[in-house]
Structures are given as structure tokens and as C-alpha cells.
Write a sequence for this structure.
């Protein structure tokens, strides 16, 4: 598979097994990234709509929340109290069509040496939801 060239018939699997199918579409965006181009957001929205038509569940992960918001940098437990992150999540939801309850803010491990329960909680919550979505999709198609 070469993502930079168009797919041709010899590369296309006409009868994919459940192992060959996409189980979950995950959009990963950085909370501290500058404004995303409209053309990129439109493409993401079209991909999401196509996945929706195919019954594929979708979710988003908003990364680098500590870098984007001073409140969460000081105390990660403020993640759902932050007006800035709430706006970022609302903007992402509005631009690509993923519901707010399917957008998961996380802090990336970057400089830490030891594990942190608050960081782990956010990451593992998102991962659990991803696995749950995949399991639900597999139950539908099998």
C-alpha cells in the first residue's frame, strides 16, 4: 500500500475479512496547534462522513492539553473545567462532526520519567473507548 499513489484494482481487496476492515476511525489533533486549514478540516469531515456511511465508529483525541492550557498544566484534573479546552473540543466537533462525547483530551508523556495516574487515566480512558468502539463494530459485522 502506497498512500501517495492512487489505489489500483490489483491492490484492492474485494472481499476483506473482518481482520482486514477498519474498526474505528480516530482523528488525532493537537490542542496547541495553530488553526487547521479549512481544506484539511473539510477532507477530515468527508472521511468521517464516509466512515459513518459504512457504520464505522469515530472518535477524536485532543493531545498536548497541558501545553495548550495553563489550567491543565498546573493541575490535569482541571481538564473538564477549562473553558479553553472546552472551546477547542467544541470547535473540533463543529468542524469535523464528531460529537463532544467522542472527543477525548489527553496529556502526552514528554519529559516525565515516572508514570502519573492523572495522565494515565486520560490516556487509558480514550484507549478503552477506542477498544469498546472496535468491539461494538465487530459484533455488528460478524
Amino acid at each position: 500500500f502506497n498512500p501517495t499513489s492512487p489505489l489500483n484494482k490489483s491492490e484492492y481487496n474485494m472481499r476483506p475479512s473482518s481482520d482486514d476492515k477498519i474498526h474505528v476511525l480516530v482523528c488525532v489533533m493537537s490542542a496547541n496547534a495553530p488553526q487547521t486549514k479549512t481544506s484539511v478540516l473539510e477532507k477530515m469531515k468527508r472521511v468521517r462522513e464516509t466512515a459513518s456511511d459504512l457504520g464505522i465508529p469515530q472518535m477524536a483525541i485532543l493531545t498536548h492539553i497541558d501545553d495548550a492550557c495553563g489550567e491543565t498544566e498546573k493541575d490535569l484534573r482541571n481538564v473538564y473545567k477549562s473553558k479553553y479546552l472546552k472551546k477547542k473540543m467544541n470547535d473540533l466537533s463543529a468542524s469535523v462532526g464528531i460529537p463532544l462525547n467522542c472527543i477525548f483530551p489527553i496529556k502526552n508523556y514528554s519529559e516525565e520519567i515516572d508514570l502519573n495516574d492523572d495522565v494515565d487515566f486520560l490516556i487509558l480512558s480514550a484507549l478503552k473507548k477506542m477498544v469498546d468502539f472496535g468491539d461494538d463494530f465487530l459484533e455488528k459485522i460478524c
